[in-house]
Structures are given as C-alpha cells and as structure tokens.
Design a protein that fits this description.
761 residues, Rossmann fold, six-stranded mixed beta sheet, single chain, 26 helices, binds adenosine-5'-diphosphate, ABC transporter transmembrane region fold, binds magnesium ion
Length: 761
C-alpha cells in the first residue's frame, strides 16, 4: 500500500532557516503529490492493459499543477475506447463485486490501488499497489484499514459492449437510444402526461353535469362544487404542462450535447483522404443535419408519443360515454391512418429530391466563400451567381413539388378531423331524436369536447410523418459522414516506441483510389537517423505521396515503410504524428495569439518553449517587432502576416515539441526569395539532432542535404548527395541546369561542396 504520510523521509534538517524548511516541506509535498499521481496513472494503465488498451498520457487533459479529477480520468479511459465510470462505493458493496476485470480504488492521498479479489467470508479485500513489481503478492486489507486511506471513490473499467457506445454506427435507433438513456425524466414526462390527460377529461365531464343536472334541477350548490373542481383542474393542468415542457427542454439539451460531441469526435477520426474526396460544403451541410434529428426527436416525436398516451386514456372514456359514436370516431381515425400510410412513399421521394438539391446549393455557397479571393480577383462573380441562381431555382422548384405532395394527406385528413370532433354531434342529435332518452344534450357536448382530443393527435401524426421523412434523409446524411471507416479502428492500439528517426521504404507501390497509374512504383530507400533527405522531381512525380505515407495518411500501400525497424502500420497513429513535425506549403493558423499558435494546445508547453521554437524557425525577430510580441492576435487565415512570416510560424509550431522527424513539403516554395533564404539559412540548425525530409522543387535549397532522392514518375531515379547527382543523374542535372542557367556549372560545383562538408563534421 502506498504511504499516507507525504512528509516521511524528507524532514528538514535542524540547521535550516524557517524559509528553507518551508521550501523543503513544499518540495517534499510536491514530490509526494507527484508520486501519488504516478501510482494512480499506473493503476489505470494496468487496468486498461488488461483489456488490451494502451492509454496515452498525452491524452489525459487536466489543469496543470492540479491532480486530475476522477471525471478527467474517466474521460481519458473512454478516449482510449473503454467503458469507464467513477462511483462512490462502501466496503460492503466492494465485497459483493465480482472482480472479473480490474477495479481501481482512488485513495485519499491521490494514489490508487488495484482490487484483485474479495473475500466476503472473511470480510477482507485483496489489494495490489500498482507500483509494486508484477510478481509481488496482493495485500489483504480489512474494512477499518481501508477506511483510513479510502473514501469510497472507485473507477470501474470494462470493454465496451452496449449499443449506444462510441463505435456503434450512427442511426435513428442510436439517437433514440440516447433519448432513452434519459429514462428517469421520460418516465416523469409520461406520468405527467397521463395525469394531464385525466385532467383534460374534467372540463367536458363538468359541462355534461352542468347541463344535465345543474340546469335541469337548478342546483346552485352543485354548481359551486363543480366550479371549485374546475378551478383546481385548471391549476393542475397548467402546472403539469409547464413541468412537462421544462423536462422536454432538458432532455433536448442533454441529447443535443451528446449527439454533437459524438458526431464531431467521429468526424475527427476519419482519414484525411475522406476530406480530400468530399467537398467541404457537402460535409458541413450533412453534419449540420444532426440538428434536425435532435429537434425532431425531442420535439415533434416526443409530443406525438405523449399525445398517444393521451389517446390511451381518452379512448376508453368515449366508449364509456357513447359506444356507437365512439365507433364512428374510431372508423374516422382508421381512415386517417390509411391516408397516412398511402402517402409515406411519395412524400418520402419528393422530400429526398428536394434535400439533395439543397445540398448542391449549399456546396456552391461554401465553395464561393472558400475561394472568394479567386472569385474576386478573376471577377468570377457572375458565374458563381448564375450557378447559385440555377441551383436555388431547382431547389425552390423541388421544394414546391414536395410541399405539394405532402399537402395532400393534410388536406384529406382535415374534413375527417372536423367530422370526428364536430360532425359526430349531428349524428348524436339524430340518435337523440330517433331514440329519445339515450343521448342527453350535456353528454353530446361532452362527447364533442373529448373526441376532439382523439382527432387532433391523429392529425398531428400525419404532420409528423412529413417531418419524419425529412429526418430519415437527415439521418442518411449524417450516416454518410459519421459511419465511414475511421482512420484507425482502435485509436489506442499499436506500438508507441521512442523514435530515433531511421526511415526505410522497401518496394513500396501505391495508387490513389480511383486511379490506374501508380503514384509510387517500387520505391526503396533508407534514411539513417539524424540525417537530412531531400526529395526532388517534377510536379506529380510522387514527392508528396512519399511524405503522406510517412505520416500514415494513406495506409493501404504495398510493400513496407519502417520507422526504426518497426512497420509503420503497427505504430499507433496519434503517437506517431505527435512525434513528428510537418510543414506544408499552405499552413493554417488558427484564431488566437502567436504564442497559442506556436504551442498549438500541446500540454505542458510554455512561453519559453514558444520562444525557443520561434528562434529555431527564424521567426523570433519579426515576432518581437510586432505590437504585442508573442501576444499579437492572429485572425483566421492570418491576413495580418506575410507569407514568409506565416511559414516561419508554421515551422516554429512544427518544432516546438522537438520532433524526431521533421517533414517540410514545399514549405518554402510559395515564398519570395528573401523569406526563402531566411528559412533555408536555418535548415541545418533545424535539422540538428533529428531526421529531416525536405521536399522542394528548388534545388538550391537542397544542396546541404546528406542525400537527395530524385523521383521520376513515381520511380527512384537516383539517390546521392548533390555533387554526385550533378555528375551522374541526368534527370537531376537537367533540373539543376534549368534552374541555374545563370550559374556556370563549375561555379555551381564550387558552391555545392562547402556546406555538405560542413554538415559532415
Ligand atoms: N488525392 C489524390 N487523388 C488522386 N491522385 C492523386 C492525389 N494526390 C496526388 N495524386 C496523383 O499522384 C501523383 C503524385 O502526386 P504527388 O505525390 O502529389 O506529386 P508531387 O508532390 O511530386 O507533385 C500525381 O500523378 C497526382 O496526380
Ligand atoms: Mg507535392
């Protein structure tokens, strides 16, 4: 068991000053807290490992300098793909657990213990210290001893089995499952609805009594009693209605939060290819359909279900009041049902056509906004507007058609509904005339009032049907995004080695989906750890594809890519990408300060790290000249920075965590010569102590590389240092001469060797 006395072993020495003693005590306390946290994390990791899940400490999110809350720990485990809950237990409950998988007791001092077995007969539990060696036996602990260190906080872990889990496919039922999780609130709503239904029976029955008894016998006392009842019923109905709506809002908000979080999480897990294949507009539109589903489920659908509850209460009553009329009412109801069913198909199809037109329309909007610079500078406004006009016209047209069709069931239902609530009165009056004594006027009016309660829910169902079609389509849209295969099935699976930076490609073939030509054709090469590799070749020769494979963006290639001898496909993706730095030609800077953009949310990084990274990237000097230095605000898309400045910030962001592998894919290609020279001057410094892969079509920026790989139509043409390539590789020499015509080739040769030699030592 872990020690409960954080001060033990580090008492201040007698000679210390008071302040010194306090400092020592504080630092001892910090050590103890750190140690306890370590034990807690180890316990959780061990429990997760039991289910074959490796948790990544970088994914544990909690405010620095604090102890992570049980909620943060639960979130961490869930992110790893396991079921987890924090609960408070008593010793008695602990004894009843079937310890099928590890149970973690969170101890008062911040550490943790693993529960291995329980022995209810002897009233003891067996605990294991997570820091103990694996061979150490567990310790028996009784209730008294445990209560001294444990307040009842417990973490339970399991493999996921339920339907409403992280990995279940998105569907209508899945969302409904979320709604059902709120069963306690739902139950309250249903009770409330049943009560309200009974209360709504009060006024008609009263009217009946008033007319048949009070008016006939002129009884004032009965009237006042009835009035009191009436008042009470109204008050109750109002309050219950208020509560019912409130609970509905609460359920709506909760379900909304759950769906939104889930959908975003799932979207982020999709591979990059998916986003490259799909238009951003289409994705945005489809994801936004989630709102429709949630609105429907917690709004119209809920109220329809509640209306049905009302029917269960009301229908027996109308049969009780007047069976013949009740049969007439129910026949009308059946007719309404038939009309609803007949129109399901046509409405469905019409709404489907309209929605797909709507998708097309919104993709024009998004495309125009994304490319607004190009649209403006090439004066493409008329074209875009024309396209928008056309798509809008189509959409409006289809919308009209859809409304036209869905108008019919409502139109047909309307007279039936009217007959159910009012026409039956005429029928009842006829009964009264033909067979006097069976139907009183009061009863007739009461029947009319109650039967309208049967008619309106049914008519509402017809309207809900309309929305239901839209929602089904919305579900389809969300499914088409969210149910795509994720980048890795189990985000926590895979090796998490410490990288040295040795890269090896072995007979790698790759074609992009839907293309016939090979983007990479039998690529084999090797890069020793800590060296610089240059990648050159004509546009489209496969340079970017090589770096994409290296980042694990595309994983369905043939052959092997190995990092330090480990097959790339075996390595945990998130871990790998976190250990890399990547700078592309276009880099996105997020809204926020320069410091925040460099740190990019990496846990544990401070301003000092940001300054160090900025210096390495050659960005320090311009950042310091900015009005607020590192706190200067950058807008989305960073309009207040030049291309070179943006690029240097991107490099700083890529190297802040000191990656073992740095990939620059045409990072300087869009820069002006001055900015390019600034970045290139730093390359050797950037590359110190790590492997670098630099893609550039400007050969002068690669002369310092240890090796240059020349690609030609997806094949390796040659691989050697610059000087050798100029001599022996025709593709390279051609490129070099094209770009350096102004230089005499001997001068080029003279400028080449110096840096390479300098690099060598
Ligand atoms: N997303 C993609 N889908 C289909 N083909 C692609 C895709 N990206 C690149 N390609 C093709 O793969 C080949 C290599 O592309 P790439 O590696 O980007 O070349 P480079 O970076 O050398 O200019 C090219 O022929 C290109 O047309
Ligand atoms: Mg490229």
């Amino acid at each position: 068991m872990s020690s409960t006395d954080p001060q033990s072993g580090s008492m201040p020495k007698p000679g210390d000053t008071q302040a010194g003693a306090q400092a020592a005590a504080r630092s001892a306390e910090r050590d103890a807290i750190h140690e306890a946290l370590e034990s807690r994390l180890m316990a959780i990791e061990a429990a997760a490992r039991f289910h074959h899940v490796e948790l990544d400490r970088d994914e544990l999110r909690y405010p620095k300098g604090t102890t992570p809350s049980p909620a943060a720990l639960v979130e961490w485990v869930r992110d790893g793909g396991l079921w987890c809950r924090a609960i408070r237990m008593r010793f008695g409950q602990l004894l009843k657990i079937e310890v099928a998988s590890p149970v973690i007791l969170l101890l008062r001092d911040g550490s943790a213990a693993l529960l291995t077995t329980v022995d209810p007969a002897r009233n003891i539990v067996w605990l294991k210290d997570p820091r103990a060696a694996s061979g150490d036996p567990p310790v028996a602990v009784d209730e008294l001893r445990l209560s001294q260190v444990w307040s009842g906080e417990t973490l339970l872990l399991r493999a996921i089995r339920e339907l409403t889990d992280e990995n279940a496919p998105f569907s209508f039922l899945w969302v409904w499952g979320l709604v059902r999780q709120e069963h306690k609130l739902l139950r309250d709503i249903i009770y409330g609805s049943v009560a309200v239904s009974f209360l709504t029976l009060v006024p008609p029955l009263m009217v009946m009594t008033v007319i048949d008894r009070v008016l006939t016998y002129k009884s004032l006392s009965t009237l006042s009693l009835i009035s009191l009842f009436f008042l009470l019923a109204v008050v109750y109905e109002t309050l219950l209605g208020h509560a019912r709506r409130k609970i509905t809002f609460i359920i709506g908000a909760r379900v909304d939060a759950k769906i939104t979080l889930h959908v975003f999480k799932r979207m982020l897990r999709l591979p990059l290819d998916f986003f490259e294949r799909q238009q951003a507009g289409v994705i945005t539109f489809r994801i936004s359909q989630v709102n429709k589903i949630r609105e429907f489920m917690t709004g119209k659908m809920m109220s329809t279900i509640l209306d049905l509850v009302t029917l269960i209460v009301v229908v027996p009553v109308i049969f009780f009041i007047q069976p013949t009329l009740a049969w007439v009412t129910m026949s009308c109801a059946a007719l309404i049902g038939v009309i609803i069913v007949i129109f399901i198909g046509p409405v469905n199809r019409a709404v489907g056509r309209w929605t797909s037109a709507e998708t097309q329309k919104s993709s024009v909007l998004v495309e125009t906004l994304h490319g607004i610079r190009t649209v403006k500078s090439l004066a493409l406004e008329p074209q875009q507007r024309e396209m928008w006009d056309r798509r809008t016209a189509t959409s409006v047209q289809l919308r009209l058609e859809a409304s036209e069709i869905s108008n019919w069931p409502q139109t047909l239902i309307h007279p039936l509904e009217g007959f159910m609530s009012r026409g039956v009165v005429l029928l009842g009056a006829a009964f009264a005339i033909l067979d006097p004594g069976t139907v009183n006027p009061g009863l007739l009016i009461a029947y009319m009032m109650i039967s309208s309660r049967v008619a309106s829910p049914l008519a509402n169902m017809a309207r809900v049907l309309d929305d239901f079609q839209e929602v089904r389509i919305a579900v389809g849209f969300v499914q088409s995004i969210v149910n795509q295969p994720p980048e890795s099935v189990n985000p926590s699976a895979g090796l998490r080695p410490r990288f040295e930076g040795h890269i090896e490609y072995n007979k790698v073939n790759y074609s992009y989906p839907g293309t016939k030509t090979k983007a990479l054709d039998g690529i084999s090469f090797e890069v020793p750890a800590g060296t610089m590799l240059g990648l050159v070749g004509k546009s489209g020769s496969g340079k970017s594809t090589i770096t994409r494979l290296l980042q694990g963006i595309t994983r369905d290639y043939e052959g092997f890519v190995k990092l330090d001898g480990n097959d790339l496909r075996e390595i945990n993706l998130a871990h790998m990408r976190r250990s890399f730095g990547v700078v592309l030609q276009e880099n996105f800077l997020f809204r926020g300060t320069i410091r925040e953009n460099i740190i990019a949310g990496r846990p544990g990084m401070t301003l000092t790290d940001a300054v160090r990274a900025a210096r390495l990237a050659g960005a320090e000097e311009f950042i310091e000249r900015m009005p607020n230095g590192y706190e200067t605000w950058i807008e989305e898309g960073s309009p207040n920075l030049s291309g070179g400045q943006r690029q240097r910030l991107a490099i700083a962001r890529a190297v802040i965590h000191d990656p073992r592998l740095l990939i620059l894919d045409e990072a300087t290609s869009a820069l002006d010569p001055e900015s390019e020279a600034l970045v290139n001057a730093n390359l050797t410094r950037l590359g110190k102590g790590r492997t670098m892969v630099i893609v550039s079509h400007r050969l002068t920026s690669l002369t310092e590389c240890d090796q240059i790989l020349v690609l030609d139509k997806g094949k390796v043409a040659d691989m050697a240092p610059h000087l050798v390539l100029v001599e022996r590789c025709s593709v390279y020499r051609q490129l070099w001469l094209q770009q350096n015509r102004h230089l005499d080739s001997s001068a080029a040769r003279a400028s080449g060797p110096a840096p390479v030699l300098a690099q060598g030592d």
